Amino acid sequence: MKYYLITQEEGNRIPYNINKNHAIDIRVLNHKDISKIGRKNIMEMDIPRDVFFPDIMFDPCLLVSRICMEVILMYHKDTIYKGVKLLHRDTRTKATYFIPLLDELQCISERTQYNNVGNRITRLVLEASKISEAAVFKISEYNGKSIVGREDFVESILRRGIKGVDFEEIETDGNRWY
């Protein structure tokens, strides 16, 4: 099975300073403490001129559009999530997003390569046996600015025309994909 690292496309004029009103305590975005956050929340943001709202954002936490959330729920119907309105008070610009709590898997293979200092991955390899049936997930030992999607999940979100997202195929143990 093929897997893809899903990241935010660079160069877009996206919102910034999201959650500047501290409406959500990012530290409680876990299965144990998520009940401390309301079902619907308003997170203030700053926006550049000609703002673009991508379907997936990673700062200050994972934020996905309604389209992406619907696809996540197709594959993982028990996914816990919270709804948020992003709001720029001055212009009254707003957008609806969701904060899903995706499974965090420890699935980095021993064949993963790091830079000389050892603090940055230069070649990511996943251990397929530790992924099981997860269609979309976070890698617990990896940078929080990405998620991983199985090929069928990626195809599903692409068919729905998501925007502002990049995909990079990831090698898995026993399978090399170039």
Task: Give an overview in words.
- The protein is mostly beta strands and 178 residues long.
- It has one domain.
- Helices cover 11% and strands 31% of the residues.
- The chain has 2 helices and 13 strands.
- It has helices at 66-75, 151-159; strands at 3-8, 40-44, 56-57, 63-64, 81-88, 93-100, 104-105, 113-114, 121-123, 125-126, 136-139, 147-150, 165-172.
Beta-strand proportion: 25-35%
Query: How are the strands of the biggest sheet laid out side by side?
Result: 7-11-12-1-13-10
Give unreliable regions as ranges.
none
**What is the oligomer described by this structure?**
single chain
* Span of the ends, CA to CA: 14 Å
Task: Give the integer mean of the pLDDT values.
Answer: 92
- The ordered H/E elements are EEEEHEEEEEEEEHE
Shape descriptor reads globular
User: What would you report as the Rg, rounded to the nearest angstrom?
Assistant: 17 Å
Tally of structural domains = 1
Counting H and I runs of at least 4 residues, what is the number of helices?
A: 2
Helix content: 10-25%
